[in-house]
Design goal:
- With 153 residues, the protein is an alpha+beta fold.
- 33% of the residues lie in helices and 16% in strands.
- The strands form two sheets. Strands 1-2-3 form a three-stranded antiparallel sheet, with helices on one face.
- The model has no long low-confidence stretch (mean pLDDT 95).
């Protein structure tokens, strides 16, 4: 595994890669594995794309990802990547999109375990009533990311 820190506008992010793929993105309040920092091509490209995202110049990421999880979590994370920049959906809507309309809580659990926040945009999922709820990086970070994308809260 390789690690590269990126001091973003929302705090220090840990970019973790393995081979030619990004496997994790840690948020400022999340622990980072004890591995040596080393810049690799995939981590350099991830940082470049994040810089463009925070500058308002990138709406879709295309870094190679390696997501590992249960089949359900993988379906949820795949659907998260289909939520367009600047749009939000509810946990119930996400559950419908993964083919399990009564699984809003399970979808929330899958979001909680999303290893590549921001790039796999779990911040774009909100409560049915339109309120923000639950985010691994905290609600202020979720609010900041949505504001960056032009979502009116």
């Amino acid at each position: 595994m390789d690690l590269l820190f990126y001091d973003s506008p929302v705090g220090r992010l840990g970019l973790i890669g393995e081979g030619d793929a990004l496997i994790s993105l840690t948020l400022p309040n999340q622990p980072v594995p004890l591995i040596a920092e080393q810049e690799t091509p995939v981590l350099r490209e991830t940082r470049r794309q994040l810089e463009a995202y925070f500058a308002g110049k990138l709406r879709e990421f295309d870094v190679p990802l390696r997501l590992e999880g249960t089949p359900f979590r993988l379906r949820v994370w795949e659907q998260l990547q289909k939520i367009p920049y600047g749009q939000v959906i509810s946990y119930g809507e996400l559950a419908r999109r993964v083919g399990q309309p009564n699984a809003a809580r399970a979808v929330g659990g899958a979001n909680h375990h999303n290893p590549i926040s921001i790039i796999v945009p779990c911040h774009r999922v909100i409560a049915a009533g339109g309120s923000l709820c639950g985010y691994g990086g905290g609600l202020e970070l979720k609010r900041a990311l949505l504001r960056l994308e032009g979502v009116n809260l």
